[in-house]
Amino acid sequence: MEEEAGVRRWIVDITRWRPSPDQFDAAAALLPSHERPAVARFVKEDDRKRALVSRLLQYSLVHHVLRIPLHQINICRTPEGKPYLQKNCSAFPNFNFNTSHQGDYVGIASEPICLVGLDIVSISKPQGETTTEFISNFSSYLTDHEWNCIVRAGTSCEVLTEFYRYWCLKEAFVKAMGAGVGFRLGSGFSDLLKASHRALYRYLATPVNRPSRDQRQVTESLSVGLHRLEFHHEHWTDISIHIDGEVTKKWGFWLFKLDEMHLASIAKGHPEDAVSSYKKALSTVSVTEEQLNSALESPEEAFTLWTVEQLTESME
């Protein structure tokens, strides 16, 4: 199926790329000079690869979709770390993208109208504790309904996978709004969770004008934590979010199984729900009901698998 204008879902398996030092440096040289220190600061090779591939995906995607010459692409970041395109394209005034990386995969998703959030999780077995002990560390971020669904999922492996499904969706949601981007490569899962939660509270400390009832619900629910955001689904399709018990119609969610050990989720929603710092980067937050419904009802296609070689060739 032909890709919808401005909509992309790309992913790279970094385990397939084993560059020599010269090959790595050549790929990094394709980035603007100000981006390279953010890659070089990591000590571990896999962390450097994730950081580099994440940035290659961003520049390649913008170049591919918007036809902007590479030397004219200016990607900035909000105070929370959310990347956005400076001087957006008039054809897609709200063009935005989100990246994620964990385990073997680095991915990017873009949308021309809706906010988009992407989260990738690696289903890692806990070390030094049982699955129940591990997920209990995060119980305060889950509703009673979500917790019951997780602990009743079956075997310990099934319980762990169910937990990661819910967390993956919550992360995609807050990342789409620009609030939950506290991730630092190499940090542990609990550090990611804490950083995301700190970002939410920084967001809530900033006065914003949110006149609609749905917008007030989003803000007020985040003020006391992720446990007031509750996901419902039918066998992990037709996924919806409930805020304080009421379903929100302005968002859509999709969950993907990348392989036996990795999941990815996509969140799409109304631009007016962006945090204040990210909202300034958007050309408009006014979207008609018809535009929103069309975007949310569009079927989600599978991710397109790219190699690093393909990315670098597209940028040369």
From TrEMBL:
Q: Main EC class of this protein?
A: transferase
Annotated GO molecular function terms are: holo-[acyl-carrier-protein] synthase activity
Q: Which residues form the 4'-phosphopantetheinyl transferase N-terminal domain?
A: 16-112
Domain 4'-phosphopantetheinyl transferase stretches: 116-189
Residue ranges of coiled coil = none
Query: Which Enzyme Commission numbers does its entry carry?
Result: 2.7.8.7
Ordered alphabetically, the record's keywords are: Transferase
Entry-linked Pfam families: AASDHPPT_N (PF22624), ACPS (PF01648)
What protein does this entry describe?
holo-[acyl-carrier-protein] synthase
Specify the taxonomic lineage.
Answer: Eukaryota, Viridiplantae, Streptophyta, Embryophyta, Tracheophyta
